[in-house]
Amino acid sequence: MAVLIVSKNKIKPENTLNSIIQVARKRGMKFQLEEQTDVNERGSAEVYISKHYDGEEEYFYLRIEAEKDLFEVLNIIKKDENQYYRLGVTDQADHDHLIYDFSLEYLRLNPEQYISIYGDKMLSLRDMEDFEAKGGYYKDWCF
Predict the structure, then answer these.
(1) Are 83 and 127 contacting, i.e. CB atoms less than 8 angstroms apart?
(2) How far is it, in rounded angstroms, from Cα 109 to Cα 19?
(3) Please, are residues 53 and 98 in contact by the beta-carbon 8 Å criterion?
């Protein structure tokens, strides 16, 4: 499963990184900065996020896009006559419980942004809150 953090507005990579750190702390997730090419100097970063569920570790690596790369064709998603900038991406997100918890908390912190599944389905905070109102996480929620 590919998961993207997207926004109609350009967001500085350090702001995305700070939001991810806050989400990890609030939800009891392990956060580790794996690779950084000076995110404060318009570079990219890769972070590792994990959490144990029922004794098993779920995890994903998330690449935070460099500010200078936001304008590249690969980092712009056009959907429903709107243009979105890709702020972060992972294609290793096989653990849907962690993705659910991360997405919900990230969007609560950044309600103007979206989580995209496969670059196709755009989930807003309202969508995630609707999942919560109907009982929250369930297996394969994102499909």
Answers:
(1) no
(2) 7
(3) yes
